[in-house]
Amino acid sequence: MADAEEDYSSLPLPDRFTHKVWKARKGGYEDAAKQFEKTPDESDPVFAPFLQDPSLWKGAVADSNVAAQQEGLAAYCAFLKYGGVQACTRSRGATVSAIAEKALPSARPAAKANALEALLLLIELDKADPVIEDLLPILSAKQPKSVAAGLNAITAIYHNYGCKIVDPKPVLKILPKVFGHADKNVRAEAQNLTVELYRWLKEAMKPVFWGELKPVQQQDLDKLFEKAKEEAPPKQERLTRAQQEAMASAPAAGEDDAGGEAGEDYGEDDGEMEPLDLAEPVDVMPKVPKNLHEQLSSTKWKDRKESLDELYNALNVPRIQEAPFDEIVKALAKCMKDANIAVVTVAANCVDLLAKGLRSGFAKYRSIIMSPIMERLKEKKQSVADALGQALDAVFASTGLSECLEEIFEFLKHKNPQVKQETVKFLVRCLRTTRDVPSKPEVKSIAEAAIKLLTESSEVVRSGAAEILGTLMKIMGERAMNPYLDGLDDIRKAKIKEYFDTAEVKAKDRPKPIIAPPKPAVPAAKKAAPGSKKPALGLKKSAPAAAPPPPVEEPSPPPKPKAVPKSGLARPGGVPKSGLATPGGGLKMQRRIPGVGGAAAGSPRRVSSPPPDEPAPAPPPAQPKFGLGRGLTGRPISKTAAPAEAAPVAAPVMSGLAAVERAELEELRLEKERLLKINEDLKSEKTRLSSQVTELQNQNAQLIEDHTRDVLSIKAKETQLVRARSDAETAEQTVQKQQREIDRLKRELTRAVRASAVSPPAVLSDGLHAGVSDNGPLSPETGTYSSNGSRAGHYMGSRLDNRPRSYISSPSEDKENNGFGSPTAETHLDSTFGRRKFSPPVGQSLSSRGSPVRATSRYASASSNHSGEDQPSITSRSAEPAENWKRAAEVTSQLKARIEQMKARQGLTRPPPSAHS
């Protein structure tokens, strides 16, 4: 065995891959994997034999020996990992089908994992379409295990790469087939795949296959979809080789952003995918009516509407193939001016379908159709306004915000308030749905137009303008919108802030991070400024407080030359610091006294040094102030020395007082600013609360009105319910009464039928008209009469005895029934038969046993055995059937009358049986 193994290792790898001995193949797979890992690059010669003959990998991944197959799959993964794109494209056609049939259903977890890894590597290196195309046939395999394994692999592919890398259309089309599979494991894997696709596609996937599923399956999937909605948006977990190279070539600073954006973009784009993206384009031009333009030119509005209905049916597809629709769009634009609103509504619906079906392809028709639609917004009927709004939204979705702003601004200035109102609503919808952040000029134009609308007389327009500004602020940020809101009052700002808080937009303002860095620099500069410039600002502001002294000093400059006031005027500018030129004269020093604020601001050192020298001379400064004007005007220039000495004394005192006063003044100003700010905050809060109170009052009034309306509606419903219940009870009683009447009539009919069956009219008439004699002899042997009359009487008595009685009949009724209402016949029969009426003959009781039918047949046969004298009489008696039936009917009516009387007297109770006298 050792020699054989050495021989195997000495063989070339291609020979070992095709060797008959599985150990040789297994060793070849292991050695190949090791050699692939040691290669420096993709051009190493070790890859050449496998690139030239890719069929070697087909045998490796589908090896008949499971141990060798596991190593073959591992070797193929190493070949793809280190062999690059060329290794993928050369071997893909031979391996994917073999992996799907032999490797994915393997019982070994390692083999199954390697098979799945090989499929993922094939997609990573090149593209997913060929792999999915070769995997789909396994879903039609006969073995359920293979189908389930294929579904599991496809689920893993979508989980790792998402629906942007792997096209979901081919898989969505085959879902109904796998959901109808007989094996429960296959159906379970189909559910997992559907849920994974739903994570990426959401509701957009349903129109493709949802209608072909059973209701139970739809319910199960809906439950799973609800759980999937609660999960985080999916992200691509595995990048393709092209994406990896793009990330590697990106700058180091942008690597993280690029990677994060890549994953986020897949989740967002795929999560918002629409049915249009999954549908195939349809050529609708053959379905467009040929005489469309002729019909639209008809004077009858019904003809125009019918032609537009046909066009609507033709355009009603998820995706429309590109075609020249110029004439159709122009015709639809012309229909917007139609006098009939039904025509306008259908035309708007056609524009909606056409724009949604063409999407970006409809952008070239925007200039033709958009202005006519907006001009028609003057229609006040809500259904027409809604149709026009949907058409505008579809047109906007096919173009963009920048293209539509020109028409929107034009119609925001429209004279018709209804047009202006609907245009404002359309602009709000545009800002909410746009994915492109408006440029700064566009933001400025939108903000200025909305601010102008805030002063409109219509409340709807004013609210719409505030909503425009709030939505725009949501896109651009509060800082970018502050310059446009400075001149607005607090109520309008609060309204805009409310819309800003509730607005939902899709656009992302990416300039924000760029603007953000300067923010920390601005506060830094401000922090440096307060330390040095705040006192200067305070001093400048204190000048008005110190203004009264300068008017007193103003008269001093006139007696002197104009040069003195010029120098005094030059110093407030603060350019040259005159503190160094004290020897110049006392006038200059005295002029600094009123401008202490400015001097102290220029040189604060003098304020700190003089007070310790002479703190006492505080009172003297008042005297120079009063005599300042006179002393300066009356003194000559020769006395400049004395003022020069007094001036330095007065200056420090005033500067010291000014410092204390300035500190107090600064504190007071700060306190005042704080109080003003608090007051403004309280005012804004009060305004906001008052607006909330007003809104709540309105809501409360609306709720009270709704509650009252609901209570009245409930009472009305209750009244209707009570009436309906009473009607139902009355109807039920009527039905029960009728049912009792029917039962009673049925019983009476049954009794009448029994009475007619027991005593036929012909026989009874014969018995009643027969000449029965009272003295007919009775034969003791046979129990019959010896004469014909006695026989007839015997027959009649037997028939009368065997006749059944009704359970509600009384003895008196029994007499009437037996005699048919004829007292003469009853008396005659009673006297003729006597005792035989109650006790029939012995022969009769033995043979008939009380059966009326048998008694009738017996008497009929007995009468036939006698002489022919009786037969003519019987024949003559039976010749009057009609008269006999009339008598029977009369008897029946008499019976009914008597029954009704008995019911009325006895209350439908059966009378107790009494002995028949």
Chain-wise SSE layout:
Blueprint: H1 2-10, H2 13-17, H3 22-38, H4 48-52, H5 55-61, H6 66-103, H7 109-125, H8 129-135, H9 144-165, H10 169-179, H11 184-201, H12 206-209, H13 215-230, H14 241-249, H15 252-271, H16 275-278, H17 292-296, H18 301-315, H19 326-335, H20 341-358, H21 366-375, H22 382-398, H23 401-412, H24 417-433, H25 440-453, H26 459-476, H27 478-485, H28 490-502, H29 511-515, H30 518-542, H31 549-553, H32 563-570, H33 586-592, H34 596-602, H35 605-608, H36 610-613, H37 622-626, H38 628-634, H39 641-758, H40 761-769, H41 788-802, H42 811-819, H43 823-833, H44 842-848, H45 852-865, H46 870-877, H47 881-906
Please describe the biggest sheet, giving its number of strands, its sense, and whether it closes into a barrel. Answer: none
- Kindly, what is the distance between the CA atoms of the first and last residues, rounded to a whole number of angstroms? 130 Å
Strand content range: under 5%
Give the strand tally: 0
Counted up, domains total 5
What is the class of the largest domain in the CATH system?
Answer: Mainly Alpha
Poorly predicted ranges: 252-271, 511-655, 762-879
Q: Helix proportion of residues, in percent? A: over 70%
Class by alpha and beta content:
mainly alpha
Question: Which CATH-level-2 architecture of the largest domain?
Answer: Alpha Horseshoe
Radius of gyration: 58 Å
